[in-house]
Design a protein that fits this description.
- The complex is a heterodimer of chains A (321) and B (227).
- Chain A is 18% helix and 21% strand.
- With 321 residues, chain A is α+β, with helices and mostly antiparallel strands.
- Chain A has two domains: 38 residues, no CATH class; 259 residues, Oxidoreductase, molybdopterin-binding domain (Sulfite Oxidase, Chain A, domain 2, Alpha-Beta Complex).
- In chain A, the strands form two sheets. In chain A, strands 3, 4, 7, 8, 9, 11 and 12 form a seven-stranded mixed beta sheet that branches.
- In chain A, helix 1 packs antiparallel against helix 2.
- The N terminus of chain A is likely disordered.
- Chain B is mainly α and 227 residues long.
- Chain B has a domain of 144 residues.
- The model of chain B has no long low-confidence stretch (mean pLDDT 92).
- Classes of the chains: A alpha+beta (321), B mainly alpha (227).
- Chains A and B meet through helix 3 of A and helix 2, helix 3 and helix 6 of B.
Chain lengths: 321, 227
């Protein structure tokens, strides 16, 4: 039993007792000591004093790997859309150091048998972490190939035990001005919200993600936990999640609210439905250090049609874009 | 002085060349995106710089010499706008640059053209459907017309008045450039705001100058009538 249920498990089962006590009084010192102690089942090698450093993850074998060359790690970690840290794609890497990823708790709430708050380290240790290599397609018509480390969101959903009335899962990202001084400056109302239909959330491809390239996520990638939904445009894959809420109705989602004609709730990767301002038929595949772009045709469901097309049988995907 | 203006205007271009040669460009996460923004930004900034020459020169007679650079700076705006357009044609559209180069090396001299024909439908579709492309293309076409008519000979052939009328289109090009920028950025991105404010100030300066001149003119006329 690794998940902490509302105080049911003492936190001492997760981190050494002394370390935990220090943490309410002095976070920095706590993190330093935690690093020395090598706390956390899947976490190790954190350097004292480097509270934001990415740490190595231990992963198990996976069946989900695409064959394309992976994007150079430096590119994947320096080109991010994370408006809470600036609207240019190079800004989050510069600004996201203010995000503190410990302590971090994820609230599982809404239509579930028993709402609870889970500590991030317990959440990471809940299931073995797979390193999956997924295609990642941005709505801006560029794409990357990224090894993501996590386990299926379905595992957490099964554990959370949603009520039959729960039809959607909503993800709420952190909204805390003390860690995100620029939050809201872009005109986007915090917190960032995303959502999936229950069957989408339960699909084995939907990954509750803690890392990439064998390390914990960099802050700008949405540390300490995010989802990755590889058949949808990137903005569907909410970052730095603090709440996972089970709801009966389609939840309000940030980009859809902001501009519903450009960003649908489903936002499945679809080469036949253009963004109103640009074509989605092709994408620049950013998986090399060449200045000449590899422009490749975009695939329906980002190449994951075999796994997910069935979820949308009978739906008009031109209307439900 | 002229050399300095040339160097200033060519600086960004040499910077881009240096980034390419040193490999720094390839390390950019999305080099094509970088080149697109870089050339687009500089086209607009140089155009705004060009539009600043007249209001600044009017501040004092001592700065009257600035006028000599107006045409040259305008041509540099056209230069960067053309690089920006070429970035779209050669790098954004799906044009296979390495393929075209390999073709040339193998003495298939039609290869670059063949590649262009392949991506032509995509570009045509963009030009038909996408307002931000249309307005950008309009700005470039205006700059092209101004560049073509910029030599002294053409000015004489056209007559000063016609030439001036045509070259007033530069205001439209500036506005089209700013609109083009607004229409491509995503909701929440406010980077075009700075350029918009600068353009507004520069256009307003002209309106103010014109008003002041008119009021002064009336004052003079009134004085003449009274005497």
């Amino acid at each position: 039993m690794l998940i902490r249920r509302g105080g049911g498990i003492a936190s001492s089962e997760i981190t050494p007792k002394g370390t935990y006590e220090a943490y309410s009084t002095d976070r920095r010192r706590f993190l330093a000591r935690m690093g020395l102690a090598g706390a956390g089942v899947a976490v190790g090698g954190m350097f004292p004093g480097m509270m934001q450093a990415e740490t190595k993850l231990t992963t198990v074998a996976t069946a989900y790997k695409v064959d394309d060359a992976t994007t150079p790690e430096a590119k994947a970690k320096s080109y991010n859309n994370f408006y809470e840290f600036g609207t240019n794609k190079d800004e989050p890497a510069k600004n996201a150091h203010t995000l503190r990823t410990r302590p971090w708790k994820v609230s599982v709430e809404g239509l579930v048998a028993k709402p609870q708050t889970i500590d991030i380290d317990a959440l990471m240790a809940f299931k073995p972490i797979e390193e999956r290599v997924y295609r990642f397609r941005c709505v801006e018509a560029w794409s990357m190939v990224i090894p993501w480390d996590g386990y299926p969101l379905a595992e957490l959903i099964k554990f959370a035990n949603p009520l039959p009335a729960a039809k959607y899962v909503q993800f709420i990202s952190v909204a805390d001005r003390s860690m995100e001084p620029m939050i809201g400056d872009s005109g986007i109302n915090p917190p960032y919200s995303e959502g999936l239909r229950m069957d989408e959330a339960m699909n084995p491809l939907t990954l509750l993600t803690f890392g990439s390239y064998g390390e914990t996520l960099a802050n700008q990638q949405g540390a300490p936990v995010r989802v990755i939904v590889p058949w949808k445009y990137g903005f569907k894959s909410a970052k730095s999640i603090v709440k996972i809420r089970f709801v009966a109705k389609q939840p309000e989602t940030t980009w859809n609210e902001l501009n519903s004609s450009e960003y649908g709730f489903y936002s499945n990767v679809n080469p036949t439905v253009d963004h109103p301002r640009w074509s989605q038929a092709h994408e620049r595949l950013l998986n090399s250090n060449s200045i000449f772009p590899k422009t490749v045709p975009t695939l329906p469901f980002n190449g994951y049609a075999n796994e997910v097309a069935g979820l949308y049988a009978g739906m008009d995907l031109r209307k439900n874009y | 002085m002229k050399v300095l203006v040339h160097l200033g205007c060519l600086g960004p271009f040499f910077w881009l060349l240096w980034m390419y040669r040193s490999g720094a460009l390839a390390l950019q996460a999305d080099p094509v995106n970088y080149i697109t923004h870089f050339t687009g930004n500089w086209a607009l900034w140089i155009l705004l710089g060009d539009l600043a020459i007249t209001p600044v020169r009017r501040l004092t007679v001592k700065l009257a010499w600035l006028i000599r650079f107006r045409r040259m700076v305008g041509l540099y705006a056209f230069f960067y706008a053309t690089l920006h357009l070429l970035t779209y044609v050669l790098l954004f559209s799906g044009y296979d640059v390495p393929g075209a180069i390999a073709g040339l090396q193998a003495h298939h001299f039609a290869e670059p053209w063949r590649q262009l024909v392949l991506v032509w439908p995509t570009m045509l579709g963009d030009a038909e459907k996408r307002p931000f492309i249309q307005v950008g293309l309009l700005a470039w076409l205006i700059l092209l017309a101004l560049a073509v008519t910029s030599p002294q000979r053409v000015l004489r052939a056209m007559g000063g008045k016609n030439w001036q009328r045509l070259h007033r289109l530069i205001y439209l090009a500036g506005a089209a450039g700013v609109v083009h920028y607004w229409w491509i950025v995503k909701t929440g991105v406010r980077s075009p705001m700075r350029d918009t404010v600068v353009l507004a100030v520069l256009l307003l300066a002209r309106v103010v100058y014109w008003l002041v001149k008119r009021v002064k003119g009336q004052g003079k006329a009134a004085a003449v009538a009274a005497s």
